Amino acid sequence: MFSFKEFFINFKDSLQKSKEPSQIKSILNQIISIQFKGNEQEKIIEFLNNPSFKQNYSGFYSYLLTEIYPNWIFCFSEEEKNSIFNVFFKFIPKTYLFPVLVSNISKSFDFFILSNLIDYLKQFILSENSYLSQLIIEIANSDPQIINSIYMEQLVIFIGSLPERVMKQLRILQSKTNKDQNQFFIENENYFNIHNYFNTISKIIIDSIDVLVTNQFANGQAANFLGMLMGKISRLNHTDLIVNILFPELKTNLAKLNDFSSKNEWIIYLQNIVEKIPNNCIEGFLIGFVRKMDQESNIQKNQDQNMLLIFNDLLQKNSLVKQFFADKLPCNISANPKIAGYLISLLKSEPDFVQIIENLTFCWSNKNFIKFCSKEQHEFLTKCIQNGIEILTKMEVNQSKILGNMLNGIQYHMESPLSYIREFGMKTAEIFSKIINPENPLKFTDESKDEEEKKDEEEKKDEEEKKDEEEKKDEEEKKDEEKKPKQKLKKIQNENENENENDPDALFFSNIQSNSDDDLSDNDNDSDSDLVPYNLEDDETDLDSVKIPVYLRDCLDMLTSVENEPDNLEGGLKGCEILIRKKPGDLNDLSVPLTSCLLHLMKVQYIENFEELRTNSLVAIVVCATDIVVPFLTEQFYSQNLNIAQKIEVLEILSAAAMEISSGEKSQEQKNKKQPPNKLKPFSLDLEIQPKTIFPNLIEEKTRKWGWALRQKKPQNEGYINQFAKKIGLFFFPLIKKYDTRKNSYHLLGEDGLLLGKLIGTFGIFIDCAGKSNPILVEMAKALFDLFTVVRYHKESFVRSNLLYTLYLLLSFISSDLLLESFSFQFFENFKDWLEFEIVQDSNQNCRELASLCLVELSKHFK
Amino acid sequence: MKKTHKQIPQPIRVYRGHSESISSVRFISDNTIFASGSNDGEIRIWKSQSNQLVSIINSNSKKGILHIEKIDSSSFATQSRDGVIKLWNCENSDFISNFEFQTNSKFSFCKFSLSLDFSSLAIPSENPDEIELFDFKSGKKISKMQTEKSGMCMTLGFLKDQLFAGFENGKLYGFDTRMLSEDFIQPVSSLSCFEQPFLSLAISQKYETIFTGSVDPKFLLVQVSSENISQKDPFSDEKGGLILKDEIQLGHEGTSEICLRNDDQIFAFCGWDKRIRVFQFKNKTPKPLAILKFHTETVNSIHFSEDLLNGYLLAGSKDKKITLWQLYPKRKK
């Protein structure tokens, strides 16, 4: 078989030896006559699928580009240049050419070489017939074993990083060259501007889908590459560009379909590509897609195509996508309420649709959700639930937890002071009651109706309700809820007329009223008309600076009413820690709501030391009400409504609290006290000490006083009981129980290495705080070694170093007897092998050092 | 009764984050962005549509920022207490200072004033009784003005080509800036307004009226009559066409800044009483509209937005907070 290796090496040698332009020319011509002749397309495919070419081309081409071309090109005439050099670039597969060009950019510090490289690279991103589209077609024709996914990933990384590489190199060169070439830099900076660049790339991708489908090249190989590329673009935050171009195409193709079940190759291929987007980028892509749908639905009102249906197949195959649509989008990422209908019709065909709705209603009925989520988010989730419930039957509702969730949720909504939340609750309740009780559905009256009318209606309802005994209880609950806000409003309206300002609620509502009044009066606000003055009463009392609460319950109230009263946040936060440390009687009752409130507190305003105050308060709660708060926090850690930053915070709070508990209460008190001055000062020749102060001190020291030693308190260094040793189980076991479940939105054993590393590090801190020879450590070790066995070869050094740290503590804290009793010798042999591997192979120095420490500890046990 | 009184107004947003007393606040670009300067030399750029902080600029002035003035929608000028004037330009969403010059103002309380076409800048000199006029583009001194034993200059303002200055002795002087001379330019008009030092003034170009405030517990409106600008009586202390028009008695001392809305219909002033008082200026007479009470320390600076649709009013105070108020927005017809 013909060997490219020898071929390239031979010619490279002879090129290096030659010193005359004619020699170079003849050698190059020789290469061309041997290899680069015939049909261009066939030749490219031949090279493409030849593994020996792939292995050996890059060195030769780099040499050609950086050595031969710049040094000898001036000896070539324009024709020769075309016939010789351009042939080289024409015949080489673009799949191989691109990496060579890109990797040479950062090496070229010569203006001439760089400008050449950039000229070639520009060919890749032409708007028409670009090399990149050729590259995509090449990949479609390639052998999956030669162009494997690893190679594709490299290509995608090169494509993604190209603008940055070019810009960086241009900046370096611009500082060196004179101003004559400025035009060149400006032009290229425009060309490789990140926005323009990714826009063209997106265009090329979408165009090539067309080409692939029409030429019937559309296979898995190309879909894989395009999926990766689209994922990369989403990951670099340019989803909007690709979606902007994708949408019109998608629309025209969807329009061709009468029914979604009929087949369109383009759409099927697009589905294939989306399926191949890597898991770590898919969410970005989906968010971009939904955002674009948002805008589209604003522009076009009669959009009857449900674009989300292209994700139909993917939903069953990829759990992340399902998680996104069934949970994240409705509960965490808001969208236009119009999309809610599309979303539900997408989810409708899912086998566990009832379960999905159950989860949504659970989120909807959560008090914290009602309190902390934005109006848009709330509206979207409400719309989703309204659409979803309509599909369900009474049977399904009764069998699941939906009924309970909904009743709670509606009650909380009705209690809310905000009118829009009450309205959401009412509308949902109306729809819900149609399913529970189709003959006599619940109907809420407008808030503005007269009281008499309402009374009549309610009486009628009462009579009717008596007939149906089964549903009586539910209905009554709702009716009570319904009365409350209405009565309140009525009252407020009356009070408004009398300008009664006693009731804070009334003030709030009258403010809203007066605002609407504002609009009216300003309408006829001509240049000379009178403006209506505000209340000009000015009590001469001055405003106090921020109020600090005196009771814990006040503090909680202040923190929960932050939206209405911005000053409350500052006061509440400042007072919080001090109040908790006093351990008031109601701490146990209030600790969970307080923790939850602090954990979700957003930094809406700029407050000095906001993070510090919040963390200190949280740590204080954990220390003072450990038994109640720790189970709550560990449960929250695996719940769905915390983001990654909050989860990390939970871990940090737990470890800070563990450290404080283990150091004992006394040391905490000592910290607050000032250190007693040390009597015995070392002799010093400090001349600045005044004699006035020296002599009284000397006399004091020399004077003998009876009983002085007894009266004086010695600086104590008393021992203390490590309270944490007893409580470590409470901290540790709930956290380690669920690390491998996928139910939480983060995949700890998968790509979320940061959280995993942090979790393992926190375990290490727990062990450190628990102290040596604690019997519970053996039980912990059993659970931890299970975890370690799974993740010890984790690819992120952060995880490995935390793991080694925790392992080191475990090995040094447990006595040899206990350790050898609980684990087999073979088990440790296994770990020993791994540690030896770490010491030699690990790329991170910290890991290598920790591994050697662990090995020392391990060998101590086997003396 | 035509209409009932409205409720007590509350700020729509409160911005926190400065670690020192705030000395100046100004809207900059399209009224969506505003700048605030504080006594530690920090300038912060904020968004008015949300509570977002856009950037923090360190002006490198240890004595702190005294005054900020908008030039156009992407640039503004600052005066630090050591008399350095800096011009800041927005480049790639970052504010960069590309021009600065040193003036002789060392008293660190009189804010500079820019002429209406932004060509010249008036600022007190290092000597009492004196004011200097600089070319704002080049930073070169054009001319200087002098009064007789009036103490330090406290506040400045342009009315067309005239420069008005309030002094420590409570007198208001008018100068003609068109006069060019090597020597000191003498005032063309003057009026005794207050017994105690001047603190602030604002000028309505439309009605040719000067709004003045001082340490005295009163607020005066002075009418400028252009016909009578020549000297009336050379021996009298009072010259020129300045006529006392109206007087508002206040229950407190100290008016730190006065601001007029773009349409010259509404003006507001703030001061040592921690409140902002808003008035309507109709038929050339003031009518009280609102008392804005929120701050817990002296309010140092206020500014109306140019865009009347929003009707925003900014206030920066010694209590390190900035408040944004919405008052009488004009609706589109």
Automatic annotation (TrEMBL), chain A:
Entries under Gene3D superfamilies matching the protein: Telomere length regulation protein 2, C-terminal domain (1.25.40.720)
Please name the InterPro entries in this protein's record.
TEL2_C_sf (IPR038528), TEL2_Regulation (IPR051970), TELO2_ARM (IPR057348), Telomere_length_regulation_dom (IPR019337)
The UniProt record lists the TELO2 ARM repeat domain at 349-451
Under Pfam families, the record lists:
TELO2_ARM, Telomere_reg-2
Residue ranges of the region described as Disordered: 440-536
Q: Where is the composition biased (Acidic residues)?
A: 448-479, 516-529
Localization per record: Cytoplasm
- Which BP terms in the Gene Ontology apply to this protein? 'de novo' cotranslational protein folding
Q: Which keywords belong to this entry? A: Cytoplasm
Q: Name one GO cellular component term.
A: cytosol
Primary localization: cytoplasm
Q: Does the keyword Transferase apply?
A: no
Does rRNA-binding appear among the keywords?
Answer: no
Q: Name one GO molecular function term.
A: Hsp90 protein binding
Domain Telomere length regulation protein conserved, chain residue ranges per copy: 549-658
Checking PANTHER family in the record gives: TELOMERE LENGTH REGULATION PROTEIN TEL2 FAMILY MEMBER, TELOMERE LENGTH REGULATION PROTEIN TEL2 HOMOLOG
Of which family is this protein a member?
Belongs to the TEL2 family.
Q: This chain belongs to which protein, by name? A: Telomere length regulation protein tel2 family member
The organism's taxonomic lineage, starting at the top? Eukaryota, Metamonada, Anaeramoebidae, Anaeramoeba
UniProtKB/TrEMBL annotation, chain B:
Residue spans of the WD repeats: 15-56, 292-333
State the SMART domains in the record.
WD40
Q: Which portions of this protein are annotated as coiled-coil regions?
A: none
Record keywords, A-Z: Repeat, WD repeat
What is the designated name of this protein?
Guanine nucleotide-binding protein subunit beta-like protein
